[in-house]
Amino acid sequence: MHAAGPKNPLHGITLEMMVTQLVAHYGWEMLGRMIQINCFNWNPSIKSSLTFLRRTPWARAKVEALYLDSLPDMQPKQEGETPE
């Protein structure tokens, strides 16, 4: 688990927010390829995924790691900013 505090990038971010943002960014199919767990590949839903991830620390850690790695890509671009 990560340290609590405002400098932690996961501070204030719920598991539901992480999964919702990852699904919006990648879609279920790509998310299921990136993290190969059944809740993302077989009849996926936010509710079933949250149930599994809350009970399975290793899977939650993978979701948190992917979320942290994906944060720069998911940040909205500022006006006038050009993509790299």
Structure report:
It is a single chain. The protein has about 80 residues and is mainly α. The chain is about 60% helix and about 0% strand. It contains four helices and no strands.
Radius of gyration: 14 Å
Number of helical segments with 4 or more residues? 4
Structural class: mainly alpha
N-to-C series of helices and strands: HHHH
Overall spatial form:
globular
Find the count of extended strands (DSSP E, 2+ residues). 0
Flag low-confidence runs: none
Give the integer mean of the pLDDT values: 88
Entry summary:
62% of the residues lie in helices and 0% in strands. It is an all-alpha fold and 84 residues long. The termini are far apart.
